[in-house]
């Protein structure tokens, strides 16, 4: 059976790292729900997006600014942190590798 590794993110730019053949962008997405008592709750999830295509990465680093609303599609890539392993607990971070769209 074939599988699909695809993310679609619609959110707000939080920060953009400097361009160096790729660019990392932090994007905030919001969740809203009601708890068991009917109280409205809200949470913000942060997704780190890595723009790999060099031309797009340069454009994103130059033009994307905090607060911009973006729509991004890409694939997930999970990494393991060796630094966290030295602290006696393991950390996994999901990242989205993408072509950029605004």
Question: How does this model look, in words?
Answer:
With 102 residues, the protein is mostly beta strands. It has one domain: OB fold (Dihydrolipoamide Acetyltransferase, E2P) (Beta Barrel), CATH 2.40.50.140. It has helices at 54-63, 82-86; strands at 7-16, 23-34, 40-51, 69-80, 92-99. It has a five-stranded mixed barrel. The model has no long low-confidence stretch (mean pLDDT 81).
Give a nutshell description of this structure.
15% of the residues lie in helices and 53% in strands.
Whole-number total of structural domains: 1
Q: In terms of structural class, how would the helical and strand content be classed?
A: mainly beta
Report the uncertain regions. none
Approximately what portion of the residues adopt beta-strand conformation?
over 45%
C-alpha Rg, in Å? 16 Å
Compute the number of strand runs: 5
How much helical structure, as a percent, in the residues? Answer: 10-25%
| Widest β-sheet, arrangement of strands | 1-2-3-5-4
Structural topology:
Layout (H helix, E strand, L loop, with lengths): L6 E10 L6 E12 L5 E12 L2 H10 L5 E12 L1 H5 L5 E8 L3
Parallel strand pairs: 3-5
Antiparallel strand pairs: 1-2, 1-4, 2-3, 4-5
